Amino acid sequence: MTLDLFPELQADWERFGATDSTCAAAWRHKSGYVVQHCGHPTANYPYYIIPPAGEMILAENGRGFRLLADAKAEVLELTRRER
Question: For residue 8, which phi and psi values (nearest 5 degrees)?
Fold first, then answer.
């Protein structure tokens, strides 16, 4: 699922942290999950998820997510499974 195709889902996210670029920025979902950028400007897999419980979640490849949209989509899947 690509969030760009569902602009109404963007309202469920709030950006905080760094505001001048995506490096070190974070996005909080209304469920309490956070997608965080690692802060390194040339990272290949810069996004990771922090659930409300606090333990970091990585992508299936054992690294972070390459795209912000992929990390956000994973959060939506995780919240769907919790229902």
Answer: -65, -25
Confidence of residue 75 (pLDDT cuts 50, 70, 90): very high
How far are the Cα atoms of 14, 41, 48, 63 from residue 60, in angstroms, in the given order? Answer: 25, 22, 11, 7
Classify residue 1 by its DSSP letter: -
DSSP letter for each residue of 34-71? EEEE-S-TT-SS-EEEE-TT---B--TTSS-BSSHHHH
Overall domain count for the chain:
1
Most distant CA pair in the chain, distance: 36
Rounded Cα gap, residues 42 and 40, in angstroms: 6
Quote the domain boundaries for residue 55.
3-82
Question: Can you list the pairs that 14-21 forms with residues at least 24 positions away whose Cβ atoms lie under 8 Å?
Answer: none
Q: What is the pTM of this model?
A: 0.85
